């Protein structure tokens, strides 16, 4: 398994758990939990791949993504109370997932020949798209367009990735650096209670 695949699958699991837990909090049924887990886990990547013309989308071409999403949804469904007790851990993992998906999205954007703005947009879209779909499905205004310093961290991460690759930094180093910087920005925003409002 390549570093790219490992990062992508890890981020998918974290987001799927968060999506499944949101479904449980909204009292959705079994199918609703699984749908929200899947769409949160792979939604951003699906949208990104459709925009890039990368079809079939990576998450549909590789069944591991769907299996991981279903596993994350089941974990959220059957361990909701434990997840609630350790919500800080989920938020911690979500911040890591944000960094991972920002790195993955930036990498794919550059692979498809996008410039710096396009790479940054692909980073943010991959990292936040699933959460936006999730929020819309449960009739909430997505946090990323209200006040949360979330998409901005992913945009900055995408810029870091582009600059690193233009500076001849090795791809694995650029991926890890992007994930680290994005996650660090998100952690700082959570700690300092930064917002965009």
SSE blueprint:
Blueprint: H1 3-25, H2 30-52, H3 58-61, H4 64-78, H5 80-85, H6 87-111, H7 116-137, H8 151-166, H9 171-192
Helix pairs in contact: 1-2, 1-4, 1-6, 2-4, 2-7, 6-7, 6-8, 6-9, 7-8, 8-9
Overview of the molecule:
This protein is an all-alpha fold and 197 residues long. Helices cover 79% and strands 0% of the residues. It contains 9 helices and no strands. The chain has helices at 3-25, 30-52, 58-61, 64-78, 80-85, 87-111, 116-137, 151-166, 171-192. Helix 6 packs across helix 7 and helix 7 (116-137) packs antiparallel against helix 8 (151-166). The longest helix is centred in the middle third of the chain and has 25 residues, at 87-111. The relative contact order is 0.15. The model has no long low-confidence stretch (mean pLDDT 88).
């Amino acid at each position: 398994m390549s570093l790219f695949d490992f990062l992508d699958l890890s981020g998918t699991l974290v987001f799927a758990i968060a999506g499944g837990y949101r479904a449980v909090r909204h009292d959705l049924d079994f199918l609703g939990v699984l749908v929200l887990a899947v769409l949160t886990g792979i939604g951003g990547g699906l949208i990104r791949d459709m925009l890039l013309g990368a079809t079939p989308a990576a998450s549909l071409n590789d069944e591991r993504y769907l299996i991981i999403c279903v596993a994350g949804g089941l974990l959220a469904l059957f361990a909701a109370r434990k997840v609630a007790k350790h919500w800080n851990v989920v938020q911690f993992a979500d911040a890591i997932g944000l960094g991972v998906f920002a790195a993955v999205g930036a990498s794919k954007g550059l692979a498809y020949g996008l410039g710096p703005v396009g790479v940054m947009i692909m980073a943010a879209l991959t990292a936040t798209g699933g959460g936006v779909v999730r929020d819309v499905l449960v009739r909430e205004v997505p946090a990323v367009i209200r006040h949360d310093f979330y998409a901005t961290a992913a945009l900055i991460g995408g810029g870091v990735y582009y600059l690193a690759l233009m500076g001849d930094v090795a791809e694995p180093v650029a991926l890890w650096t992007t994930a680290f910087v994005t996650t660090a920005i998100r952690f700082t925003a959570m700690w300092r209670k930064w917002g965009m409002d």
